[in-house]
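hiii so my PI (J.) wants the whole complex modelled not just the main chain, which honestly fair. so below is everything: three entries, each one labled with what it is. i double checked the lines twice but i was tired so who knows lol
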Amino acid sequence: MDSALIPEGVKRCSPAKFLIFLGVVGAVLLWGVFAMLLCWIKGLNQTNMNDYYGFALWIWADLAVIALGGGAFFTGFLRYIIGKDELKNIINYAVLIGFICYSSALLILAIDIGQPLRGWFIFWHANVHSMLTEVAFCLSCYFGVLTIEYLPLILENRQLDRVPFFHNLSHNMHEIMAVFAATGAFLSFFHQGSLGGVSGVLFGRPFGYREGVFIWPWTFFLFTWSAAACGPCFTILITKITEKVTQKKLVKDNVIELLAKISGWMLATYIIAKILDTWYWASVTAPSKGFWLLDFYSNNPFYGPWILVLEVIICGVLPALILITESGRKSKTALLLAVILAVIGVSLNRWVMVLQVMAVPVMPFDSWYMYFPSWQEIATTVLPVAYGVILIGLSHRYLPIFPQEKELNPID
Amino acid sequence: MFPFIFEWVWDMSHIVFMGGLWYALTIIGLGMTYCLIKAIADTAGIGSGGHHHHDDHH
Amino acid sequence: MNKEHNKAKKFGMVIDLDKCTGCGSCMVACMAENNVPFKADETNKLDSITWMRVYKLTNGKSFPDADFCYLPRPCMHCEGEHGHSPCVSVCPATATDYSHETGIVSQIYTRCFGCRYCMAACPYHARYFNWWDPVWPEGMEKSLNPNVSVRMRGIVEKCSFCYHRYQLAKEKAYYEDRREIEEQEYQTACTQACPAGAITFGDLNNPEHAVHELKKNPNAFRLLERLGTNPKVYYISSREWVRLAGDNYLRQEGKSEKN
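here's the output for the full assembly
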């Protein structure tokens, strides 16, 4: 039925099976769209946010998907700027995952703001001293870059490629991709960083506040660093899941191992920096404002010291150790465990830097308030996941995303 | 974002921030313009960029 | 005209906590004055709007040492360092501003797009989001204050130190050919409503205003001074535990101050 659209030399499931897949995921997507419309039409009273949790699940989701989408800029940086040529076999997928993550982040932001129709004020009336302004500008620009990086892939669809103009455009875009990738890396450095700055500059919130250099708190650099470390882990994880679902090998082991190795060293150096940052904050910054480390982790039903151990040790040190050792990378189970832990770790870090910042009482006579998202918040957060799955499904089926697929899965 | 918006100020932070922004936008814009113009030229048969094999890029 | 008058104004408040009875008149007056919307069911205080909110503090001791104190909390109109208040610096759309002329932190309702970053930045929870459309019971909309704009759903609002009253006082002074307004010409609604006279409002920079002296009281303190927010609301209490409750202290610091 759709065989004319499928790349040559590869095998895809039957259209019926694919339609069932689209139908199931599409139903989830529609559920999310329904919740989104509720939030837009009825307002943010549809959420469980309140005046103590002005930032909640959505802002976490934004920070998390952008960190996980960091695989696109960092793999692009390694491939085009550093010249790690093997990574050309995974860069397409990294770009696609990045594109999904960033478009999701923009969508969630559009739901999260109280007056969506005024969203453009952030550009028009920009306050250049606000971290959020920097985020908005860089994020939108970088989404443009990702679109530019994804576009040639779409144009390489078997039918589109037959159109000479599209063929030439795609070729030309590939030719100067390094320029776009470099711009993307520049923009990513700033918006990943300014997302870290979002809580780092809050001098009224001792849990999030960090000292730093010039206008940038330490979290600025930690966020960029952790996104560069854990983004590629997410790319690897999604590649592994895709291989499992499609039941075939799509990327050669040496490519995965190279990315895992770089990721591992990034993660190892990041986690050392994170430990130093935590130590300095706990022993100098927070006490200067009257807080002990354990004040942030006690007298409440959820945020205990376990969260710090889980984030830094189990989801930080452990995956870093696995990924920097060759035997760790070579073992399928260990590698998978490491990338899963790294993804959980970075997501947990973003959760802590958003939700726990809100939860910790600052006035001595105030108390901890807990938060659990409403179904509308959950549905609108699942919505981008469903959208991502659909886009991956379509892209995998109709576009030559994995250059090594033909070689790894010869058709008799 | 633009100097004609009333709260615009010509201070250092503005110049650095907006400078970075417009620098990035210019590169992206010029890059895409180049690709489009060259693609039109290639399609029309002007210049040399007609034949290449698909596997030389990914 | 004396030199002090030409200095920039710095409006602020001194609240005597020993006088506050916790009656809530300030909260009611504030809501009426500023057209603050309310919900049909106000049981959930986490999403109701109270520009002025009275907190109840207890010393945590049992009888006969038990003691409590009411603490009214308006917006602190933090100055930070040179106007770098926690909320103003983070607003991405320049929708909240620190006035160096009056020291008042304003909120531009038609500019705010509801990202709530300022709420995340404020340690006093002085900022409130309009989770619902503002709706008043039938007929009550006729008694709204015409000098204060009502706010739409999806934006943040907070105490303005009744800025509209400052504008009116200035207009009146201008009409009467005066350049300066008198202390009593600009008073906030909460100040005037307090039956105990616990709230004093005025220009902290002006030696002729009562607040100028009151803030120098040895028992005066501000909330969370250690954070560097530099608030313009001062509290006075003769009770040491109340003064200590105004900020966070490490265990050994607390002990050393109490001893």
